[in-house]
Amino acid sequence: YNTVFDYAKLGKLDVLIVVFSSFYLYMGETKEQFFDRFADLTIPIIIVGDEYKDCISVNSDNSDGIRKCMEHLIKKHGCKKIAYLGGPKENNRDAKERLAAYLNVMEENGFEVNDGMIEYGDYSANAAPLFGKLLDNNPDIEAVVCANDTMALAGYEECKKRGRIPGVDIAITGFDNIAEAKSYVPSLTTVEQNSYDLGYMAMKKAVEKLIVDRME
C-alpha cells in the first residue's frame, strides 16, 4: 500500500518526518525511488534512521551500541569466536554502521573473521535459517552478535530446535531492547534504542528548521 505516501504530497505540510528505518524493507523500491516521489516538494524532510542527500537526519549511535555488546562478550565472558548476524548489505545506514563496529572490535582484539562468520538478514524473524548457517559454519562458535532483537530472538528459537541453550551453550546479543527481549529465558542482552528520543529529536529538528526558514 505504498500509495499512502502519495498523500503526503497533497496535505499542504510544513515539514515531513520519514521514519525510513521502520518500513523501507517492505516497500519494494529503493531509497532513491521512494524519495523521488517527494522531489517536487519544497518543504524540509527529516529522516529517522537513515540519511539521504540534503535531508536532515536523526540516527542512533550504532557503532557505540555494537561496541558495548562486543566488549561485554569479550571482557565479561571471555569470548573470542564471535559471529555476526547483520542487517541488509545494501541501502541501510544502521546495518552498515553496526557491521563496521563488529569488524573493528574483532580487528582491535586480534580475532579472526572469515566470510562464514557473517550472515545478512532483513531484521525479521526470517533470519532463523541464517542463524543456523552461522552455527553450521562455526562449530566452535562462542557468541553471535545480532544487529537487532528480532533476529536475536529468532536465534533463540533456532538454538532451541538444535538443543542448544542460549546463555549456556552460546551467547547471543541484540539491538533495540524490544519488549519481548525480557520475556525470553534467559532475557536477551541487548542495546536499548530509545524510539521516544528519536521521535523527540526529529520533531525538535523539524521545529528548529521551520523557525530558521521563517526568520529568513
Characterise the protein shown here:
With 216 residues, this protein is an alpha/beta fold. 40% of the residues lie in helices and 12% in strands. It has helices spanning 20-23, 31-36, 62-77, 93-108, 128-137, 149-161, 195-215, and strands spanning 16-18, 45-48, 56-58, 82-86, 118-120, 143-146, 171-173. The chain has a 4-stranded parallel sheet with strand order 5-4-6-7, sandwiched between helices. Helix 6 (149-161) links the parallel strand 6 and strand 7. The model has no long low-confidence stretch (mean pLDDT 90).
The gross shape turns out to be elongated
Compute the number of strand runs: 7
What structural category arises from helix and sheet content? alpha/beta
Q: In percent, how helical is the residue content? A: 25-40%
